[in-house]
Amino acid sequence: MLLLIFLALFLPCAGMSAVFVVYICLLWFATNNHHQGEFRLPVKQAAEKGLSAPELEKLPRVTGEELVMGTECAVCLDEIEREQPARLVPGCNHGFHLQCADTWLSKRSVCPVCRAKLEPHPFNFNPPDDSPC
Ligand SMILES: [Zn+2]
Ligand SMILES: [Zn+2]
Fold first, then answer.
1. Considering the entire predicted model, what is its pTM?
2. Which residues have C-beta under 5 Å from ligand 1, the single-atom ion?
3. Which ligand sits closest to the CA of 87?
4. Which of the listed ranges 12-21, 30-39, 123-132 does the model predict with the highest average pLDDT?
5. Which ligand has the nearest atom to the CA of 78?
6. What is the Cα–Cα distance from 39 to 108, expressed in whole angstroms?
7. Residues, Cβ < 5 Å to ion ligand 2
8. Which of 119, 97, 99 is nearest to 110 (CA)?
9. What is the largest CA-CA distance in the chain?
10. Residues 95/62, Cβ–Cβ less than 8 Å
11. What does UniProt give as the signal peptide span (predicted)?
């Protein structure tokens, strides 16, 4: 009888101790891994280059009524009014508010709708020199 009482008291204590030891071990491992993580070198992000202000100025500037591919701006999801200034993406002819397009294109040089790549100098077409005359 005395042995049963002893076991009833001792076993939960032993179980608690085991759990506590495992918990301390896990905590120690977690702290160790955290310290190792601080030595990792920061990963350089390959940032996509946007267009500069002079390059943005070369893009066609129109008004809302001249847009051919619909009058909804995909950047702010608002309607482009007939009298509002808009920017036209050369090639795919998608149009956006002037401010929306410039904000977007200064960060990345792709069309927000179709992801068409904008070349910095799309209109520099050099005719070949070997003309027949
Ligand atoms: Zn917009
Ligand atoms: Zn487009």
1. 0.55
2. 73, 75-76, 97, 100
3. 1
4. 12-21
5. 1
6. 32
7. 89, 92, 94, 111, 113-114, 116
8. 119
9. 120
10. yes
11. 1-15
CA atoms of 133 and 130, how far apart (whole Å):
8
CA-angle at 73, arms to 87 and 97, nearest 5°: 35
d(CA 34, ligand 2 centre) in Å: 45
- pLDDT for residue 46: 47
E strand or H helix at 24: helix 2-37
Which structure tokens are listed for 126? 């050099």
Domains and CATH numbers, the chain: 53-105 (3.30.40.10)
| Long-range CB contacts (within 8 A, 24+) of 10-17 | none
Q: What is the pLDDT of residues 84-127, one digit of tens each?
A: 999 999 889 999 999 999 999 999 999 999 999 887 554 444 55
- Judged by its nearest atom, the ligand closest to the C-alpha of residue 104 is 1
How many angstroms is it from 88 CA to the middle of ligand 2? 9
In the block, tokens 């309607």 appear at 79
Tokens of 71: 């009058």
Question: For residue 72, which ligand has an atom nearest its CA?
Answer: 1
